[in-house]
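QA checklist item 7 of 12: single-chain prediction sanity check.
[x] sequence parsed
[x] length recorded as 578
[x] structure emitted
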Amino acid sequence: MVFPKLSYVLLKIVFSVLILLAIGLVFYFSETLVPLGADVYTYSYDDIKETVMAAGMFNLYTIIGLIVALAVIYGVFSLGKFISIKEKNAIIIPCVAFAILVVLMIVPLNTSKGLTGLSQFLAENKSYFLYQESYDYFATSENIYFDFYLATTNNDSHLFQKEYVDTQYPFLHKNNYPDVLGDFFEPFDGAPNLVFVIVEGLGKAYSGPDAYLGSWTPFLDSLGKQSLYWKNSLSSTGRTFGVLPGLFGGLPFGEHGFMEANPYPKHRTMLSVLKDNDYQINYFIGSDKHFDNADVFMNYQGVDLIVDIDDFDKDFKKSPAEANGFSWGYADKENFQNGLRKIPATEKPQVNIFQTMSSHSPFVIPEQDYYNQKVTEFLESKEYGHPTIKLRNYQKELASILYVDDAIKDFFNAFKKREDFDNTIFIITGDHRLPEIPMSTLIDRFHVPLMIYSPKLKKAKNMAALTTHFEVPTSLVAFLEKQYGLETPKDVAWRGYVLDTAQSFQSNIKHALMRNKYQFRDYFNGEYFISDDAAYIISDNLNIDPINDPSVLKRLESEFQQYKNEDSYVMKNNAIIP
């Protein structure tokens, strides 16, 4: 049975939707500067809804616009019945179109070949990118061969040699990390408190010395001069989903990020070790604790207190909302103030974790006009500029960075009044760089500042050695164990090495980096870096230059595959620790 009219209508609907989708993908790229890929399938419905609402994309005007656009496109396809085509041409045109399609399928036009960073993303066909990643996500699966136990481990790191103890648990090694921090501190009055400030979107490109977009964090810059400061530091992931597992546990990535696993493989983190040593652990965030399953992860570690959007005192107001009424929650100044009120009064040492959110899309902050004006003043007085990036086009993003810098300044001024200030170590870093501001290189999305400050610090030091979030928990635990008798496990499975305190640039570690919940394409060993099947050499300020050395590319690709094999195995077989 044939229904020509119905088929014609359905065909026009499908083509109209595809064209509308293509337009939407271009719009998405214009907002994020990253093409939409299969990572969209790795987020829960609630997470996607919250992100779309936050970006201001879902409102009455958007819905009306979509309906009108769909009607217009559908109407254009309907014009065919008014165009007369001879029978001969009606056969030739589809045949030629089909032949072109076949040729393009056999010899695809790869206009992004040889390009990197934003140039590569600009050249990508946004629709093809999504379709190809969708096909890879749903129709293919990566072959994992669990032969990693044959691999040698004697070239692990010049900083720290891991002694692996059990081939059934490929990450498990003796917990003999050296204390690289002890010499930097005066003695504390007992085990020190730890305060972590995890700043949303704090990239090195616009913070601290040698920031190529100029530094937009004057308070953090001044604090960095009084701190242990790593200017060549990397986050483990290019989005927020990986900061907690990476910064506190050096944990595997899993298929879509460790916190997406259900159930979690058995594991230990710095937080769970400190909890076992009678530390009080508190986590403060101004948004929803359920986003990215942060609350599930923190509860697994035994965190005592989680304060999120539902736990603010009534005198605090939520962050300004978008036109659709959506707000992420409470802005960073309110988050810090509320958290300071709610830190428990206890004789126990404490870990207080503050995670910011104001410098997240849509970058709507309190006192918006004031900080917009501050951006203008910065551009004029400091003469910030870039040959290809027009900073004035990113006023909202830069204003939000200035705002969070002020929020951290106010937080420190308030914390100084606490009796435990002198007995506290502060660790400040970004979760990733903002993708909304164009990135200069493929490694730029991971480049974040890292600083450790304390009133008990003997002297400040600026480090140029490459390090990552993975090295933070191992170094802090080793410091607390050696200096204050922290009881730690005999064997651990943390991926990190130790923080490198060299003042000149060097890289003596190796790690994989995960861009988003689907793209796992970046790996470095020492000063060599591979990304999207190309090899680079890393230099100071994390500049990367392409190299044409097939042997290096082949070696690192083999190591990266080994890394992914191990990562997948331990996650799927509950084989992180016994």
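[x] summary fact logged: The radius of gyration is 26 Å.
[ ] second reviewer sign-off
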